[in-house]
Amino acid sequence: MASAEGGQEAGRRYWRWSKADFFPEPSFRSWRAYSGALLSTGPRLRDRVTSRSSEAVEAGTLLAQSENPLRRCLTWVDLAFLGFGSVVGSGVFVLTGQEARFDAGPAIPLAYAAAGFSALLSSFCYAELATEIPSAGGSFSYLRVELGDLAAFLAAGNILLEAVVGAAGLGRSWTSYLAALIGRDSDALRIHVRALADGFNLLDPIAVVVLCATSALAVSGARLTSTINSVASVIGIAIIAFVLGGGFAHFDPANLGPSFFPFGAAGVFRAAAVVYWSYTGFDMVATMAEETKNPGRDVPLGLISSMSAITAVYCAMSLALVGMQRYSEIDANAAYSVAFAAAGMKWARYVVALGALKGMTSGLLVGALGQARYTTQIARTHMIPPYFALVHPGTGTPIYATVAVTIAAACIAFFSSLDVLASVSSISTLFIFALVAVALLVRRYYVAGATSPAQLRTFRAFLALIVFSSIGMSVYYNSGYARRWPGYVAFGALWVAGTAGLALCAKQQRAPKVYGVPLMPWLPAMSVATNLFLMGSLGSLAYMRFGICTAAMLVYYVLFGVHATYDMAHSEDQTTSAANAAIDDLEQGKIVPV
Fold first, then answer.
1. Angle at the Cα of 524 (from 520 to 525), degrees rounded to 5?
2. Residue range 42-98, pLDDT digits in tens
3. Phi, psi (5° rounding) for residue 50?
4. Torsion of CA 266, 268, 273, 275, to 10 degrees
5. Cα(first)–Cα(last) distance of the chain, in Å?
6. With a cut of 50, which residues of the chain have pLDDT below it?
7. Which residues, in sequence order, are bridge partners of residue 203?
8. Which residue of 6, 40, 115, 393 is surrounded by the most CB atoms within 10 Å?
9. Could you tell me how far CA 55 lies from the centroid of its own chain?
10. 441 contacts 526 by C-beta, under 8 angstroms
């Protein structure tokens, strides 16, 4: 296990910059070595695809790559407030107006309910896996253990994409609400460059400044950041209470007509797929398991309590918005501020704008914590240079990882509009959450060396049926046959058959140590179905961007990632004694029974 003493024994300063820090693996020592590695890409790729990590490696052995430990200083109350601070503000104040105006209309609360239900299912899956594998890598570590390196790498790429794009979107929304606070148009503080394409021609220097400021605070320490976030969250709760009280006081049922579904059910699900981005902060809580005093108890409590409260808040706040103002008149960039002004409470727009700024600042602050932890664990495996895994001995935070994510987010925020960012981030999030649910099913129903071939075949068959029927339902709903019921009956029956088959015919191979998802396998299977269904509701442009990004990730993996991780996995440093020591440490201290 990594320790502060370990970093001191190495005699290496934290502030350093050399080729060996970025590319320490044998495959990159020279061009001759790299050429040889490329010639061995086939065998190495097979090794990486078929390999699996372990709980001991993810939560124990790999910590040595950071040279100094992350500090255990958080409780479930901290995690609940971190979840609340990360999510509320990054969603309801940002996307509600856009989706009510263009996709869902007055039915926007139903979009939030659908997305919230899917997110709550995912939070159950995260809660169990976080107690079993209390690593800073969150979903990345879960997938490395259960689905292997290639699936984990695709998740890693999408995690980093989500982190960068999500932070960039929040930064731009911060500028819009600042403009509303001072009584200006939402784009008034941006620089319009006509030579650039639409969606990329409004430059936003304020977003860059805000991103850098919140990241600077995040690197000061998890304890200080959590305390500031908790205080800010209490203020945010008071502002939400004001929004709900003021909104429903000016609620006009006529604004919900003449049609509650002006864009049809398809519009509601399309909006649900986009506003799912509003719930992505909860997965940041899972990345804090390594810094939580009692992850076995605190992570499930923090995740599920915050997600339940957030779903209720989102539905209520979105209903208040469309009740105050007809959906066709909603300002897509600063919806609540403009709605209160239209209701005759011009002074309230400043309170709402200030609350939105507070919420988005908290979202950026907590996001900077979680994004850096993801990046740290990915770097520990050498999928990206291990330089970004280093933890500062004084602050106990991964400064290099935080700076890297911040620079990337700032560059994107400077150019890209919110609608471009939201669709890319949502599809990445849904993809990861679906993989996490699959990983949990694999963990419960398959143990290498213990599961019989017959049991494995049974599990694979029913799991394939669940995934196939979920994809089929999504494709059918978005096809020209969407109004015909036989397809829904057929795919729904296949999903029920697959899930019931798992429950009745496939024997669970592993019991959770501390916390287990209830109604196994129904809840994880439903999480797979809802995430894939919402993915299908996104437009073709989102898929095109997702495909381009995934292709770029695979090129990177073949040229760099597969060789770095192969060297890391087969290095002499990963000794059996180190793994055994990590197992002992994990069992004795990492997971504390309730």
1. 100
2. 999 999 988 888 888 887 888 888 888 887 778 878 888 887 777 776 567 768 888
3. -90, -10
4. 160
5. 24
6. 1-10, 572-594
7. 191
8. 115
9. 21
10. no
